[in-house]
Structure formats: C-alpha cells, structure tokens
Amino acid sequence: MVTKALRLDSFLPYRLSFTTALLSDSIAQSYETLFGITIPEWRIIAWVAEKGSITQQQICAQTRMDKVTVSRAAIALTERGLLERLPHAEDRRSHLLALTAEGKALHAAIAPKALEMESRVFSHFSKAEVDAFLSMLRRIDAIVLGEEGGE
C-alpha cells in the first residue's frame, strides 16, 4: 500500500488555518487602527448586534473562542461603555450582554467596513463560487461536529 506524503502547503486543514489567519491579521490591523478594537471584541459586538442580547456562553459556542478570551473582551467592552450586562431571567447565574448606544454606533460604523473588506477579497470570485465555498465550509462544520455523515 502506497501512502500519500503529507505536504503541509496542500493539506486542507492547514490551508484553511493559514488563510483564516491571513484574513484575520489583515482585518485585525484595520479594526485596531480605525476603531481601537480587537478581533475578539469585534466578534462580540457583531454577535450582540445580531442577537440583541446574548450570553457569554452563547458567544463562545458561536465563535469557537475560549471562555477567557470572551470574558476579557466583554470586560474591556463593558469598561469602554460599549456593552452592558443585563439580568438573565432564565438563568440567574449568568447575564446577557447588550450593546449600549455607543456600542450600536460603533457597530454601525464597523459593519460597512467589514462588508467592504469581504467584498474586496471575494469580488475576485463569481457568486456561484462564493456560494459553493460557503456551502462547503458549512458542510465541513457539520461533519466535524458530527451532524452529517462522513460522506
């Protein structure tokens, strides 16, 4: 039996990680320069804006960020007056995060820039390619999470 040699540059998990890091580094630099926030802080702002209010545990599940990263970013955003902690009626041990008026204004300023960055990269691909790529990423997520058979 002949086994295929591992070539890291064509090993798909590595390529996904490398490309993700490349994009994230570029985005992080822009967000830090333009808005003074980190990627974890932006992800929290974006999820809270999308959901209205959300727990830190839900953010961890949605972003795959660890609890410490989410906690530190939430504390920093709260101290800056961008987030507020609200009582959680269903679970008194946790709280909900919600954007303040200043947090909503920051989200409104960043969101168009985020979409512009996305467009700048993905405008080099057809809509069908982008749709197929997104579909593949979602299928990979489902396979890794065990939600789809290993086709």
From TrEMBL:
Keyword annotations from UniProtKB, A to Z: DNA-binding, Transcription, Transcription regulation
Keyword Electron transport: no
MF GO annotations: DNA binding; DNA-binding transcription factor activity
Alphabetical list of SUPFAM superfamilies matching this protein: Winged helix' DNA-binding domain (SSF46785)
Pfam families found in the cross-reference section: MarR_2
Keyword Transcription applies: yes
Annotated ranges, domain HTH marR-type: 1-142
Gene3D superfamilies: Winged helix-like DNA-binding domain superfamily/Winged helix DNA-binding domain
UniProt-recorded name of the protein: MarR family transcriptional regulator
Source organism of the structure: Sphingobium chungbukense
